[in-house]
Structure formats: C-alpha cells, structure tokens
Design goal:
single chain, Nuclear Transport Factor 2, Chain: A, 42% strand
Length: 153
Amino acid sequence: MKTAKLFLSLTVFFSSVLLAGDKEDIIKQIMASNDYVNKNKTNMSEYSKDGALEFWSSGGLLHEVGPGGRSDEYESFNMSIKHVEVLILVPKKAAVAMYYSEGSMTPKGSKPVGHYMTRVTQAFVKENGEWRVRASHWSPIMGGAGTSQTATN
C-alpha cells in the first residue's frame, strides 16, 4: 500500500513538473503577440517552420500561412486578450490555447472594424525551445464582428 501511495505521489509530482511553465509560456506569448501588434501595427513572427493553416473571422476560406507568418499591416489596432485557457496535449511539445480577442482595428486597404470580438483557438508546437503557431481559428462572437480581410485559397 505504501508503495502504491509513493508511486501515485511521484506520478502526480512529475506530471506537474512536466506541465510547469508550458501554460504560462503560451499565455505570455499570446499576450506578447497582441502587445506587439498593438504597438507596431504588424504581426510578430511566431509561426511554425512548417507554416500554419488558419480560418479567419471574416468567414473566408482556409488560408495557408508560410513560416514567415502573416504580413498584415494595420492603420490602427487596439485589441485586448481575455480568458486564456491552455490545454497541454503533449508536455513540452504540443498545446492548444483558447481565448477571446476584442477591440477595434483598421487593416491597411480594408474597412475599419469598430467592434471586433472573436473566439480564438490556436494549436502550438514547440520548435527549438520556442512555442510556435501551427493552426488558428477565429470566429466572431454573436454581436461582435470579425476582420474585414479575406482569404481566397
């Protein structure tokens, strides 16, 4: 019985050690990415070396994003991130984040979006010690708007 309790205790301890930091690192990256766009009016480099697949909140078709990420530029961008939840799929290797993004933006060459409010799901993989985006899905929340940009492929 003591052996079983010890084994269970060690399993719980090492499971928490394996997960420690992953959730916090991904949340920090999501917040840093949002802060970067708010400040620089363009996206931070955070995509996988294999690129990513994305569904945008504009309702466009599936969009393939290369390793260099999206090249979006904005005339204005004022967004906040809320209620981030991270699910670790494989410790230190793969995770999914879900959160809300809301605010306003004006993408260069597109119409302004005054009440942007979406749910976001992103898949992250760890490459060379850094969490990278591998897939994203943005969907507007009822009463909010998605982006005015569209994808055609």
